[in-house]
Amino acid sequence: MAVHSERVQTQSPEPGKAVVASIETRAAGGGAKGSAPKGTRSADGPGLGSRLAPYLLLLPATVATIALLGWPLVKTVLLSFQNLNKRQLVLHLTEWNGFDNYKEQLTDPEFWSVTGRTVVFTLVNVVLIMVGGTLIGLLLNHLGKKMRLVLSIGLLMAWAMPVVAATTVYSWLFDQQWGVVNWVLDQLGWHSMADYNWMSDQYSTFFVVILLIVWQSVPFVAFNMYAGLTTIPRELYEAARMDGAGSFKIFGSVIFPSLKPFFLATTFLEIIWVFKAFTQVYAINAGGPEKLTRTLPVHAFLEGSSGQHYGVGSAIAVLTILMLGALMAYYFRIMIKQEDEL
Amino acid sequence: MKRQLIAAVGVAAMVVGLAACGSDGKKDDNAGSGSSSAAGAKNYSGKTLKVWLMSGSAPKGWTDAVKTEFETTYPGSKVDFQIQEWGGIGAKVTAALSEGSVDVVEVGNTQTAGYAASGGLLDITKDKANLGGADWAANQNESAILDGKQYAAPWWVSNRVVAYNKDLWTKAGLTDAPKTLDEFYTDLEKLKATDGVADPIYLPGQEWYTYFGLLTGEGGKIAKKDGDKWVGGLSSPEAQKAFETYKKLQGYSVTGPKDKDEATPQQKDVFGKGNVGAMIGLGWELPDEKTMPKDKIGFFPLPGKTADKPSGVFLGGSNLAIASQGKNTDMAKDFLKVALNDKNEGLVAAAGNIPNKAALNSQLTGDFAKAAQSAAAVGGITPNTPNWASVEDNPNPVKDFLTAVLQGGDYAATAKKYDDEIAKRLNQKQ
Amino acid sequence: MRRSLFGRTWPNVIAVVLFVFFIFPVYWMVATAFKQNNDIISKTPVFIPFNGTFEHFTTAVNAPNFWTYVTNSLIATVGAVLASLVIATLAAFAIARMKFRGRKSFVLVVMIAQMAPWEVMTIAVYIISRDNGMLNSLVPLTFFYMMMVLPFTIWTLRSFIAAVPKELEESAMVDGCTRTQAFVKVIFPLLAPGLMSTSLFGFITAWNEFPLVLILNKEEGKTLPLWLSSFKTAFGNDWGATMAASTMFAIPVLILFVFLQRKAVGGLTDGAVKG
User: Fold this and answer.
1) A245 to chain C, closest Cα gap in Å
2) H or E element in which residue A164 lies
3) Which pLDDT band, with edges at 50, 70 and 90, does C31 fall under?
4) DSSP-assigned beta bridge partners for residue B314
5) Ordered domains of chain C (ranges, CATH)
6) Which label site among B57, B364, C43, C65 has the fewest CB atoms less than 10 Å from its CB?
7) Which residues in chain B have Cβ-Cβ distances shorter than 8 Å to C130?
C-alpha cells in the first residue's frame, strides 16, 4: 500500500515535467518558487505574532508526526532491547535484555539467509522494473497517438490496481487446477505444467511475486520516462542523427545524460519500495513454502507477531530499518548533490 | 486472520437465543447448578461477561441454553459470546488475555499449558470441587493442569473419523465400512472410478491431526524429552511408517492441495458439494443440514492396518478457562459452574463430543459419536508442556514438514530439519 | 520519414502485446466475477462471459460481516483523509508562503516521513495500541492512516499553494484583507481542485492499507483488504465470489485513478487561469 502513496507523490501538479524535476524543486525546499512574501507586508502585523505564525501552523503536523511516527519508531527500538514473549505481554512485564535479541539474530544463519534473499529479490525486481519501464517509456514516445492511449490505459489499470486485489487475482491466475496460466502453458505444449502448483516451490513462488511487483511497478517508471522524454528538445535527437548515431547511440549520448537524475532517483525509490514490500510477499504465500520466500519485513512480522516473540521481531525490524536508512541516506545525498549541480 | 462462515451462524444463533429467553431456563436451575440459592445472593446486575468460544466448538443450542440459564440465575447480568477462528488464534488469545478484554476463554487442550504458563489463566485449583471437578475424566483433566495447579476446566474431547457420502458409496457399489486400511484403499479406488465422484477422499496435505493420529497408532511420539531437552520425533522409524500411510491416503485425494490445511478452504464446504466420497473430520466439520442432510452421511473410524483396531487418532478437545487479568473473575467462576453443569454438558454429549464426565457418556448420540468413541481408545495428545502451543503457531513446522515430504522432499533430511525446528520451539525460554 | 513498413508495424504489435499483458489480470478479475460457475471451473477457460451472472456479487455482498467491513474501511479512510487535510493545509501554507528558521528541516522531515517503513513498524504500533486497550478498534487505524497520508498531503498541497500567484494574495491584502482573510477568500477557492485530488489519493492509500490492519484488527474489526486477503477462508474455492469481491473493492479505485490522472494535472492550471 505504501508503494501507492509514494508513487502518488509523483503525480506532480507541474504538467509535463519528469518526476525528478518536481522532487528536486521540493528538495530545494521550495527555493525560488515558494519564496515567502516580505514580512512587512503581512497584514497580521509585524512582530512576535507573525514570527510565531509559521510555527503555530506547523504545530499540528509536528505533534502528529512525533506522536504517530516518531513514537512508534522509538518504541520499535525500545522493544528490540526487551525479552517480550507471551508471558511478558500477558502480564505487562518489562524485561530488558540488552543486546540479546541482536546477538541472537546476528548469529542466526536464518537471519542472514533472509537478508541475502531480500537483497537478491530487490535487485532482480529493480532491474526488471527499470529496464522494462525504460523500454516501455521509449515505446510510448515512439507510438502514434492512438496506440499510445491504448497502451497507457493498460499501464494505468495495472498501476492503479489495489495491491490486495492484485495478489488475489494473481492467486487465481496461477491457481493449480483452474488457473489460466497453467492452461496456457499446457496448450503451448508444456504439459507438465497443466497441474503445476506454483506455491509448492521457492522459485516458482518468487516468480509469481516478482511478476506481480514488476507488473504493478513498471507503469510508474514508464510514464515518468515518457514524461521525461517529452522534455528533451527534438533538435538534440536530430543533431545526433545527423552525426550518424544509431538508436543505442542516441540513448547513450542524448537520452541517458538528459534523464540521468530521473534514472538515479527512480532506481533508488524502487529499491526502497521493493526492499520493504510486505503485502505482495505475504499475501501470495505468507513466506512459504517452508519459510523460503520470506523477506525481511515478512520475517519480522512472522517472528514477532505470529511467533509472539515481539522483542525478537522488533530487533529484526530495527535491523531492516537501519538497512533502509542507509539506502535512504544515499538517496537523499544524490538528490541534494544534483541540486547543487543544477 | 482466517474467517469462517460459521461465526455468523453462531451469532445468528445467539440472537435467536435472546428471543427465546426465560422459557426453558427456570426448570433447569435446580437440576443444573444445585446451589442457585447461594448464587442468588451475588449481584452481577449490569455486568457483561465476555466469553470467547472457538468456531464450531459449542454444539447447537448450547450457547442459547447457557446464556439463558446464566442470565436468569443472575438477573440483570449479560453473557456475550464471541466466536473466534482457529487461524492465528495464539496471538489473538494472548492479546485478549493481556488486555483483559475477555473473561472466559475456550482454549484448545494442546494449548492450555502454554496460556497457563504465560500467566494469563486464573488458578482455579480451589474452585475445582465447586465446579464438579471430582468427577472429571482424568485423561481429559490432565491437559488443564500445569505444575499441579488447575488452570482450566475440561469441556470435551473429540477425535476425527471418516465421514462418507452415502449416495456416492452406494453408487460405487460399496456396502460395508472397511475393516482395514487395505480395504479402504480398494474402496477409494472404486470410488475414483465412479461417475460423479470428483474426489474419492478430500484430504489436504497439511491435515496434521490425521498424521498425528497415525503416528500415535504406530506407537511414536511427535516429540519427547531427552534429559531436560526436548527433541522432535519426526525422524523416528514410527514417524516414517506413519508418514507412509499418510502419504498413501493423501495420494488418493485428487483435489486436496498438498500445501493447504483443512480450513483453507473449509473441508466441510468441499465435502458439502456432494461430489466428494469421503473426508476425515470432526463432528462440527460436517456440512449443515440444508447443504447435505444428516442421513446422507455415514461414519467409521479410520481403519487400522489390521482389523483388530482402528488407526490412532489425535484426541483434540477444549477446556474453559478464566482470564487472570479479567475484570469479572467471580462472575466467570459462576459462569463455568452453569456452563459445565450436567444439563449443559449433556448437550455437548448429545452433539457427539465426549463430555468431561464419564457418567454422561451414555448421552452420546449419533453415528458420528459411535464411530469416534471406538477410536478414542487409540487416541493420543501432544506433549503437555507450555511451549507446545508455540509449535502450533504459524507457520506450524509439522504442516510444513508434511507438505515438503509429500512434494517429494527427502524424508530423512526434511524430518531432521523440522525436528530441529520443533525442538527449537519446545526448548525456548518463556 | 523513411521508416520501412516493418519499422512502423513492430512498435504497434509490441504495444498491443504489452497492452494485453497489463490489462489482462484486471480483465480476468472482472470477467471471472460475471461468469457462471461451470465456466469458471472448466478445463478450457472461457474468455468472454457471454451468459453472465450477478450471482457472485450477491454471494460476496451477503458474506458474513461484509457491510461491517465496508463501514470500517470507510470510517478509517475518510476520517484519516479529512484529518490529514486540515493539518496539512496549515503546514503547507506555512512552508509554501512563509520564511522562517527551521523550514528546511521541516521539509526534510516531511520527505523522510513520506518513506517511513510502516511495514516493519507494525509490531510497535501493535504494542502501543494494546497498551491503550485499542486493539480491534478503528481509532488507531484512523490515526495511523492519517499519519501515513499526511506527508504526501503536505507535499502536494504545498505545490498547489505555491502555484497560486502571490500577487493575488497581495492585492487582496492591499484591498484591506488580513492575511487570514486573504487565504480564505483568495487562495482557498483556488485550492479546491487541489484539495480534492489530494484527498482522493490519500483515500486510495488508506483504502488499500494492509500490513497494519493485519496485525491490529481481527474478526469484526477487519477492513476490506484484510477480508479480501483471507478469501480462501471466506469463500473456500469459490473463485467467482472471490473475484466479485475483488472487483467491488478495486473498481472504485480504478475509476478514481483514471479520473485523477487528468485532474491532478488539469485542476491546477484551471485554477491558475481562472485566477
Assistant:
1) 16
2) helix A163-173
3) very high
4) B380
5) 5-53 (no CATH), 65-274 (1.10.3720.10)
6) C43
7) 95, 98-99
Residue of A nearest to C240 (CA): A172
> Where does C62-121 have alpha helices with state H?
66-97, 103-114
Mean pLDDT, range A164-193, rounded to an integer: 93
Which stretch of DSSP H or E encloses residue B205?
none
Average pLDDT over residues C98-124: 91
Contacts with B90 from chain A: Cβ below 8 Å: 86, 306, 308
Quote the cell numbers at residue A136. 516501455
Answer yes or no: do B395 and A91 touch at CB < 8 A: no
Partner A contacted by C14 (CB < 8 A): yes
Which residue of A86, A288, A290 is in closest CB contact with B118? A86
- For residues B47 and C73, what is the distance between their CA atoms, to the nearest angstrom? 31
Cell numbers for B130: 465447586
Contact across the interface for A75 and C146, Cβ inside 8 Å: no
- Distance between CA atoms of A97 and B303, rounded to whole angstroms? 52
If DSSP codes are grouped into helix, strand and coil, which group holds residue B173?
A: coil
Determine how β-strand B379-380 pairs with β-strand B199-202.
unpaired
Q: Tell me which chain C residue has its CA closest to the CA of residue B262.
A: C233
Using an 8 Å Cβ cutoff, are B395 and B225 in contact?
A: no
Kindly provide the ipTM of the predicted complex, given to two decimals.
0.88
In degrees and rounded to multiples of 5, residue B52 shows phi and psi of: -100, 125
Flag the least confident range among A149-158, B345-354, C87-96, C221-230. Answer: B345-354
Task: Please measure the distance between the N-terminal and C-terminal CA atoms of chain C and give it in whole angstroms.
Answer: 43
Cβ pairs B/C, distance under 8 A: 55
Q: Residue B175 corresponds to which cell in the numbers above?
A: 456396502
Domain range B161-314+395-427, CATH architecture: 3-Layer(aba) Sandwich (3.40)
3-state SS string for B316-337: EEEEEEEECCCCCHHHHHHHHH
Length of chain A: 342
- CATH for the stretch B6-158+317-372: 3.40.190.10
In angstroms and rounded to an integer, the radius of gyration of the C-alpha atoms of chain A is: 24
- For A174: left if phi > 0, alpha if psi spans -120 to 50, otherwise beta; the answer is alpha
From B14, B108, B93, select the one nearest B61 (Cα to Cα): B14
